[in-house]
Amino acid sequence: MNQSTPTPDRLLDAGWKLFARQGYDRTSVRAITRAARANLGAVTYHFGTKERLYHAVLERLFREMGDRLGRAAAGTDDPRTRIRAIVGAMFAFFGEHPDAPRIVLQQITRGGSVPEAVAARLRANLALIAGVVADGQARGAFRPAEPLFGAFSIISQTVWFAVVRRT
User: What distance in Å separates the CA atoms of residue 137 and residue 13, rounded to the nearest whole number?
Assistant: First the structure.
């Protein structure tokens, strides 16, 4: 990890990798700060708690993914092409960030609530995909079904295949 990178970014990067590989409970603040080449008090200073660092990691993940999905969905007017572009963008994101699907699965298995900033990112990503599905249904390109279920299906299948591809 590059020392010229600001400490909060190094902590986010280290947390991302360690939370994905070990899970929240098995990741210590000491391990995060060691991987980030930061002092032991850095997590407390920059994030307050390990939980808040974890939430910042989740928010970063879903923000970066959402940015990609937004660009992919905006590329054309054809709903089929937009869905293919969204799925392609998700696979590309997971290819560049192979730990991202594991963080998603860690959060699902961990349960519990997430802060509103993370929940808002999740809702925005789902709404974007559901909107493309609904548009495709309105144009006769997709069969009638609940658009939100279609969005969940697209996301969950992409996460699943990204995880399986790595094992």
Answer: 39
Helix, strand, coil abundance in the chain, percent, nearest 5: 75, 0, 25
Decide: pTM greater than 0.85.
yes
Q: Which of 73, 67, 61, 53 is nearest to 7 (CA)?
A: 53
Among residues 11, 20, 23, which one has the least CA distance to residue 49? 11
- pLDDT digits over 28-37, tens only? 999 999 999 9
Residue 118 has pLDDT above 90, yes or no: no
Spatial distance between the Cα atoms of 19 and 14, rounded to a whole number of angstroms: 8
Question: Which of helix, strand or coil describes residue 49?
Answer: coil
Taking a C-beta distance cutoff of 8 angstroms, is the pair 38, 47 a contact? no
Neighbour count for residue 96 (Cβ, 10 Å): 10
pLDDT above 70 for 167: no
